[in-house]
Amino acid sequence: MDQGKSSRRKFIRNTAFATAGIFALPDVLLAKGSVLGAAEKVNLACVGIGNRGGEIIAEFAKTGLANIVALCDVDMGAPHTQKIMTQFPNAKRFQDFRQMFDKMGNEIEAVCIGTPDFSHFPITMTALSLGKHVYVEKPMGRTFNEVQLMMDAAEKHSNVVTQMGNQGHSEGNYFQFKSWVEAGIIKDVTKVVAHMNSARRWHGWDPNIKSFPPAEPVPSTLDWTLWQMQTFGHDYNHDFVNGQWRCWYDFGMGALGDWGAHLLDTAHQFLDLGLPKEVKPLKLTGHNDFFYPFSTTLAFKFPKRGNMPKVEVMWYDGLDNLPPIPKGYGVQGLDPNIPPPSTGKIEAPKLNPGKIIYSKDLTFKGASHGSTLSIIPEEKAKEMASRLPEVPKSPSNHFKNFLLSCKGLEKTRSPFSVAGPLSQVFCLGVIAQWTGDKIKFDRDKKIITNNKKANELLVGPPPRKGWEQYYKI
């Protein structure tokens, strides 16, 4: 039997029931984990076990709340998967996530997904349809439409817990930003600047590329057809896999999708930004049709929201593409909360990843991930010190928060309802990078009104044959 046939049959059956309004799941899967005792562990299946995926699994194991029951990777047996397989020798092993769900569905309560951006979608949609709680790396998906479908599926299966993996959203910056907004310290924000100026994988490539890289022999451990999932038409090349997928429009979300969720997450949520009405590329150095620019400056325009003024969000990436620095900015050291990439250390840039927030009365600077904000200049910070509210400490890190939520003991801080619109902001930014054009976006209809090609990219090319069912709820 085709490895994915049984899972596809179940998926189609479940989604058909859901459309008819009679979809039902076993009570054990609908209780948000509340049927679990306080001491019981969550049975966690892990899809994507090398590189960043392996780091995620290790973090879940540290909580003491997860029972790693399955390991799945399209390159099972490759050198970068060995560490996790050795760490969890009793977990069952699979190369195809569909086969994993077919054979172990009743033993799995939650799934963590640490695969490339484009492949988050079918795995997540399968898990949600089967009533499994989902932790998926950021950004949620590669296209605007896929993220929308993931949000819609999570809303339909509302008893399933979801969490996007922007881990700083459970640390100090989350609680500080929330407290400072509620206390009126952060208010009347008109501009947010986010910058990530470290070297990227594609820096140094030829910007005059006219085609994808040439075909190379497929490693014996890799299922290249399955790696492509719903995408199609690419021959294997080492510059597509093991982190290199992030370089290409067809597979990844570039620097914006990679770092935006660590820099703009709290501003997006607590300033209620939603979706922009316009995205304008101001700088695209080395622009081409295949991989990301060497330097990018984007301007996102958000309209007024209730009593809050309109906001311009600026994005800067590239080695020498630094934002204007306000007077009294001071020194920003490398953020200790930033985990090193799986491929090595973060190279020290001229300005470390961070953000600058401009309001009517105050200016704030911050780093990335969970790092807290500072009021600048220092004299103003001293003046405001006695008026700042006490910020609560986080009761759980991002991984523990997810597992406790599976058990019904907490609520996730980056559920799809919060992380989805943020991810869609990045999708719109990527479309502006890809086309090189300003896009005007209708926030109500969720369409691009001034560019037919860009509007088509909201959905992207149709999925290859055999993968259409993931686009039905």
Beta-strand residue percentage: 15-25%
Q: Order the strands across the largest sheet as they lie in space.
A: 13-12-11-7-10-9-8-14-15
- Give the helix level as a range of percent: 25-40%
Radius of gyration: 22 Å
Q: Tell me, what's the shape? A: globular
Low-confidence stretches are 1-35
Major beta-sheet overview: 9 strands, mixed
The total of helices stands at 15
Give helix and strand order, one letter per element, not per position: HHEHEHEHEHEHEHEHHHEEEEEEHHHEEH
Kindly, what is the distance between the CA atoms of the first and last residues, rounded to a whole number of angstroms?
A: 25 Å
Structural class: alpha/beta
Q: Would you report the number of β strands?
A: 15
**Mean pLDDT rating:** 90
Provide keyphrases for this structure.
473 residues; alpha/beta; nine-stranded mixed sheet; six-stranded parallel sheet; 15 strands; 30% helix; 16% strand
Characterization of this structure:
The protein is α/β, with parallel strands linked by helices. Helix content is 30%, strand content 16%. It is built from 15 helices and 15 strands. It has helices at 5-20, 27-30, 52-62, 82-87, 97-104, 120-129, 144-156, 172-182, 224-228, 254-263, 265-270, 378-384, 398-406, 416-435, 452-457; strands spanning 42-47, 66-72, 92-94, 110-113, 133-136, 162-164, 189-196, 278-285, 295-302, 311-317, 354-359, 363-366, 374-376, 439-442, 447-448. A nine-stranded mixed sheet has the order 13-12-11-7-10-9-8-14-15. A six-stranded parallel sheet has the order 3-2-1-4-5-6, with helices on both faces. Helix 7 (144-156) links the parallel strand 5 and strand 6. Helix 6 runs parallel beside helix 7. 46% of the residues are buried.
